Amino acid sequence: MGLLIRNVQLDGDTTDVLIEGNRFKAIGCNLEASAEQVVEGQGMAILPTFVNMHTHAAMTLMRGYADDLDLHDWLENHIWPLEAKLGEEDIYHGTRLACLEMIKSGTTCFNDMYWHFHGTARAVEEMGLRAVLSSVFIDFSDASKAAEQRELTERLFGEAKQYSDRIGFALGPHAIYTVSKQSLKWAHQFAGENQLPVHIHLSETQKEVDDCLALYGLRPVQWLEKIGFLGSNVLAAHVVHVTDEEIGILARNNVNVVHNPVSNMKLAAGRFPFRKMQAKGVAMSLGTDGCSSNNNLDMMEEMKIAALQAKLLHDDPTVLPARAAFEMATVNGATALGLDCGKIAEGKLADCMLVDLSNHRLAPGYRLIDDIVYSADRSCVDTVICDGRILMQDGHVDGEEAIVAEARKYTRAIHE
Predict the structure, then answer these.
(1) Is residue 178 predicted with pLDDT exceeding 60?
(2) SS3 330
(3) Spatial CA neighbour of 97 closest among 119, 80, 113, 115
(4) How far apart are CA 374 and CA 368, in angstroms?
(5) Structure confidence by residue, pLDDT tens digits, 217-230
(6) DSSP string, 70-124
(7) SS3 content of the chain, % helix, strand, coil (to 5)
(8) What would the mean pLDDT of 173-200 be, rounded to a whole number?
């Protein structure tokens, strides 16, 4: 099956883009090619789609549920009790809503950590996105719970192979304060043996740091290095409470850090040391976190706030310019996940979006990437393509009304 996009703007030039299968086959002017589908791209620009590097997708069902609370109060007294009520079918519906929201705002891949793996995977499969999925691993240093979680992870790893290659598997130890040392070491070993990513929350709060110092005499990053956990397959979310030494440790171990500016700000979690991370060469990408702590999955908003926050905190308007923010939201995440996407180029996976250059937010149009980062919103996204397949055209996703209607039922169900 072929898809031809005609007369679209790429880096300021008008060109044609041919997709065959799930990859960009040819890019050039006036391509002499036939295709089963032809999209007229006149008045549009083609861009790589976003990679959301830290989500809890099904938490769309908790959007607005427990706002304006301290992180540990929010998590322990509100979120965890509610999550205990949710089953696989609930997670399926919540993830479908998340997928819809991401498609509408130009995201085609996300790195997720949540309960009920198959509910999430079914939704991703049906909606046509890419995702790297991990089931949450929490044992609270209980040996029997740890054994149960190891068995579940091993089983899910095998069962995940039933899905398409758009769905990857990762280990998901929640955090150092919810997972024992033995389980963290096991996760590191299992991931290494099976060449898997490890997705973890790290140094998100001062309490996490203080508790780690009290228990081990080391800060979280120092302790994880000591037990041999860190490596290039580690995807560490938040990472706001770190010293210069710890940043050096992250760089030395090639850890991939995921910045979540909106969630960090909403929960007053801390200040992300972007400039120090950059100076040490730490690999950085962007994530939204879940909808209970953001409250959306919009990577356009995340890019803008990341850039503005960095400028404010460093008192320097040149820090984190638009192009760097855009790359954190696209190719940096793809690279961290080992995916051959994030750029519009021949041979790359065909994940892209067409943005409507007639949209008022993109006028007068000096620099497109600057406009996408600082001005655009989801109304600018006309068409979204993932793995060579159109997921949204003319701003509409098939079945979106039913997905939203199903999610609305939870405002009543959650309180029963």
Answers:
(1) yes
(2) coil
(3) 119
(4) 10
(5) 999 999 999 999 99
(6) -HHHIIIIIIHHHHTT--HHHHHHHHHHHHHHHHHTTEEEEEEE-S-HHHHHHHH
(7) 40, 20, 35
(8) 98
Average pLDDT rounded to a whole number, residues 362-388: 98
Q: What is the pLDDT of residues 72-93, one digit of tens each?
A: 888 889 888 888 889 999 999 9
pLDDT at 321: 98
Q: How is residue 396 annotated by DSSP? A: B
The 10 Å CB-count burial string (b at 16+, else e) for 245-280 is: ebbbbbbebebbbbbbbbbbebbebbbbbbebbeee
The rounded distance, in Å, linking the Cα atoms of 289 and 296 is 9
CB 24 within 8 A of CB 347: yes
| Structure tokens, 330 | 């696209």
| Domains contained in the chain, CATH given | 2-48+343-401 (2.30.40.10), 50-336 (3.20.20.140)
Model confidence at 158, pLDDT cuts 50, 70, 90, reads very high
Predicted model pTM: 0.96
Q: What is the DSSP letter of 186?
A: H
- Whole-number Cα distances in Å, 229 to 139, 188, 197: 17, 6, 12
Decide: 12 and 365 in contact? Cβ < 8 Å. Answer: no
Helices within 319-409 (DSSP H only): 322-329, 331-336, 368-374, 400-408
Residue 125 burial (CB count, 10 A): 17
pLDDT at res. 75: 83
Q: Which tokens in the block code for residue 181?
A: 């040392």
For residue 394, the model assigns a pLDDT of 97
C-alpha 280/C-alpha 251 separation (Å) is 6
Tokens of 215: 């228990």
276, containing H or E segment: helix 274-280
First-last CA distance in the chain: 48
